[in-house]
Design brief:
- Helix content is 58%, strand content 8%.
- It is mainly α.
- The chain has three domains: 100 residues, Winged helix-like DNA-binding domain superfamily/Winged helix DNA-binding domain (Arc Repressor Mutant, subunit A), CATH 1.10.10.10; 44 residues, Arc Repressor Mutant, subunit A, CATH 1.10.10; 55 residues, Arc Repressor Mutant, subunit A.
- Strands 1-2-3 form a three-stranded antiparallel beta sheet.
- Helix 2 crosses helix 4 and helix 3 packs antiparallel against helix 4.
- The radius of gyration is 27 Å and the shape is rod-shaped.
Length: 206
């Protein structure tokens, strides 16, 4: 297949558009343009076309990966899953994620700490934090260091209680409702009981 035109992308820096007979085109990098020695009028062999298509797919996956992590933080596992959902081959998705990790643009530990910080600020306890780390595909070897950055549960619970009670007295029904809410947010029963006891309230286990 013959190349009819080669031009730089107007929207993506470092991207080259190779226009082919019949209206098809390939998106490749400048390095790939030089490596394959492409020029207008070149009649590309079938084997070279296959290699170019593979390179184009890898390049497109890299660009998509960059756009994804620029839009919002992701774990490496989340990124690969989203790339595959967009049609990337497993090998290309893995290679793109590895590349971003190597250049420091993708960092599971930093992401894990962000998750812990965000959900702690929203009044969640360790069980909820662990659920979020698991749900978002953060490797287990990042959990302990990330969870160590969470504030003392007593402080977080006290803040949640203060926001819910506004300093008012709690009846038995309100105490039960508050304790259930704190447990749903992932706090351990011992921490919930201790925090409410500080307010002079005693809660008996069912």
């Amino acid at each position: 297949m013959k190349i009819v035109k080669i031009e730089k992308s107007k929207h993506k820096q470092g991207r080259i558009l190779v226009h082919l007979e019949g209206g098809d085109f390939l998106r490749i990098t400048e390095d790939e343009l030089l490596r394959f020695d492409l020029y207008t009028g070149l009649d590309i062999s079938p084997d070279t076309m296959v290699e170019l298509q593979k390179c184009a797919a890898r390049s497109e996956t890299r660009v998509r990966a960059v756009n994804m992590i620029s839009a919002r933080p992701l774990s490496k596992k989340e990124l690969q899953k989203r790339l595959r959902e967009k049609g990337a081959a497993d090998a290309d998705a893995e290679a793109a994620a590895d590349w971003l990790e190597e250049i420091g643009a993708l960092d599971d530990l930093a992401y894990a700490k962000t998750i812990v910080r965000h959900y702690s600020a929203n009044g969640c306890g360790e069980a909820k934090l662990r659920d979020e780390l698991r749900r978002r595909g953060v490797p287990r070897d990042c959990w302990d260091e990330a969870l160590a950055t969470a504030p003392d549960p007593a402080e977080t619970i006290a803040r949640v209680i203060a926001s819910k009670t506004k300093g008012g007295a709690l009846g038995e029904k309100e105490r039960k409702k508050l304790s259930d809410m704190l447990l749903r947010r992932g706090f351990a029963w011992r921490d919930v009981r201790a925090a409410l006891s500080v307010l002079g309230e005693e809660i008996l286990e069912d």
